[in-house]
Each structure stands twice: as structure tokens, then as C-alpha cells.
Amino acid sequence: MLTLAADIAVLARFGRALADPIRCRILLALREAPAYPSELADALGISRTRLSNHLACLRDCGLVDTVADGRRTRYELADARLGHALDDLRTAVLAVHTDRTCPDTAQKGCC
């Protein structure tokens, strides 16, 4: 059983991954199916360098894994439950308030 500190660390790790819209888009894409970096970069309309930085963050957070496929590397969610968690989180947030937006983090008083 996890301690409160461990629970907080796990949630903070997931929150860090979701804090960036590009990382959210990557996770949502990988929720649908594993993909190669070139495919993800094209689908998201970002450079491969920028994608690589975001994939590194998601790997460091333990949310995505790499699978060697010959000379290529495929990315996938580290666990299928992450895809379900993304769906559940989105549904829960929409159920609570559909008319709210998160304030810009640069504003004073925002977390």
C-alpha cells in the first residue's frame, strides 16, 4: 500500500505529463494505438525534435514505453489502464463543470 507521500508523487507525475497540451495529445494518440515517432510528429504537426523532448518527459514519468521494432522504435502507453484513466479523468472533469477554463498559469494566484 502506498503512503500519502507516494500517492502525491504518483499524481504529481501524471499531472506533469498532462500539464502540456502536446504531451496530452501524444498520450491521447497512444491511447488509440502504438506509434512511431515520425508518425506522431506528422499527426501532431510538430517537429521530430520537439516530439522527442516530449516523449523523453513521458518516458521519464513512466507513462510511455519503447518497443524495439527492427531499426525503429515504437512508443506505447506503459499500461493500458492509463488510456482508461485519461478517459475517466476527461469524463469526470466534464461532468463537474463544462463551462470552466483553467486560468493562465502566468497569472498571479494560479497554482
Describe this structure in words.
The chain has 111 residues and is mainly α. It has a domain at 13-89: Winged helix-like DNA-binding domain superfamily/Winged helix DNA-binding domain (Arc Repressor Mutant, subunit A), CATH 1.10.10. It contains 5 helices and 2 strands. It has a two-stranded antiparallel sheet. β1 (64-69) and β2 form a beta hairpin. α2 (21-32) crosses α5 (80-96) and α3 (37-44) crosses α4 (48-60). The longest helix has 17 residues, at 80-96. The chain is globular, with a radius of gyration of 15 Å. The two termini are 29 Å apart.
Q: Order of strands across the widest beta sheet? A: 1-2
Overall pLDDT metric:
89
The geometry reads as: globular
CATH topology descriptor of the domain at 13-89: Arc Repressor Mutant, subunit A
Protein name: HTH-type transcriptional regulator CmtR
Function: Metal-responsive transcriptional repressor for the cmt operon. Binding of cadmium or lead causes the repressor to dissociate from the DNA.
Keywords: Cadmium, DNA-binding, Metal-binding, Transcription, Transcription regulation
Pfam family, one: HTH_5
Short description:
It comes from Streptomyces qinglanensis. The protein is mainly alpha-helical and 111 residues long.
